[in-house]
Amino acid sequence: MENQEQNSNNFGKKIIISIIAILIFLAICIGIGGYNYFKTSLKPLDVNNKNVKQINIPLGASTKKIGSILQDEGIIKSGTVFSYYVDSNKKGSFKAGYYQLNPSMTLKSITGLLQKGGSEEPIQSKTGNILIKEGANINEIANGISNKSDFSKKEFLNLMKDKKFINNLINKYPKLLQSATKSDKVNYALEGYLYPATYMVKKNDSLKDIVEKMVSKTDQILTPYYKEINKKKLNVHKVLTLASLLENLDVSNKDKSVIAGIYMNRLQLGIPLQSDISSLYEIRKQNGTLSDKELWRNSQYNLYVNPGYGPGPHDNPTSDSIKAVLNPTYRKNKFLYYLIDLNNDKVYYARNANEQQIDIDTYISE
Fold first, then answer.
1. Are residues 142 and 272 in the same domain?
2. Same domain, yes or no, for 221 and 300?
3. pLDDT band with cut points at 50, 70 and 90 for residue 188
4. Model pTM score
5. Which band of pLDDT confidence, cut at 50, 70 and 90, is reported for residue 147?
């Protein structure tokens, strides 16, 4: 009986010793793993990755918050190790701003830059070209900006809502932008005023610099026409609005001029322009057929429901569309309708709804 108890005690001791040994082994493994993780976290995340990211460090951000931002943006491996490094090396007094960082940088170089301070606004870290496609709207431009520069889509769209920046542009380009201030219901005040072209972006260009280049180009294009616009009792905003409706129509410049005349005839008679372009823009739909709900929805941008020009441009038009608005043709024919045959790109014109229906039955319906 006594031997059984002794054996049982010995067995229990062995189990306890085994468990302790396993725990010690695990602790050693965890310690080694933790040490290795800590050691590698002090090194650059990826020495071969020199792709620059623009990182915004907000005012008043703590060391822990900055570490978290850098980790989330893929600049460092561990925000926790970053905080330890800062504390143990007595780094600190980091400044808010925009920084150009990449995963190949050491913690020493990163903290050094954070102590010096970043730029007050986003800047470009490398030279390159940004293409604004013909007929692109501001949301589409925002995607292009984020793909081809250090600036994010959010930063660009926020700038499009920056009243102080827009007012500065209005003061600098009054002939171009003065009429844009008369409409407060637009999605973006600069929609229509960012001319489609390829722009060279220099190193250290700010986002504001890039946008101003686009506005300046539009001003350059329109400068020869300002007197003509006033003479025709129009304004720049109205001209760009009609030009934006023409821009994405897949028709020749000659047909654009005829369609511009149709818009003018409808405006003169107080008839809604009935352009799909406005409804597609309002619901952010690039193309396709509009449903009845989409076609007749109650919106300032819906030119099927509302007569007149609407709030403003729907995209950023080229000089060809602008010229078509300023030189509408065949107005004496009193055309009020047009029909584009997508099979052969021909355009058919009609003076009334009956003629339009005949064209539909003849050329479209089968």
1. yes
2. yes
3. very high
4. 0.77
5. confident
Amino acid identity for residue 136 in this structure: A
Sign, Cα dihedral of 74, 79, 83, 85: negative
Angle at 94 between CA 76 and CA 62, to 5 degrees: 75
331 burial (CB, 10 Å; 0-12 / 13-18 / 19+) is middle
Give the C-alpha separation, 132 to 221, whole Å.
15
Q: Is residue 148 part of a domain?
A: yes
Say if 14 falls within a structural domain.
no
Cα distance between residue 61 and residue 351, in whole Å: 65
CB 199 within 8 A of CB 215: no
Per-residue tokens: 156: 């660009």
- Domains contained in the chain, number: 2
Nearest to 319 by CA among 222, 245, 177, 234: 222
Whole-number Å distance between alpha carbons of 335 and 355: 10
Q: Are residues 140 and 287 in the same domain?
A: yes
Domain that holds residue 67: 53-116
Q: 347 lies in a domain? A: no
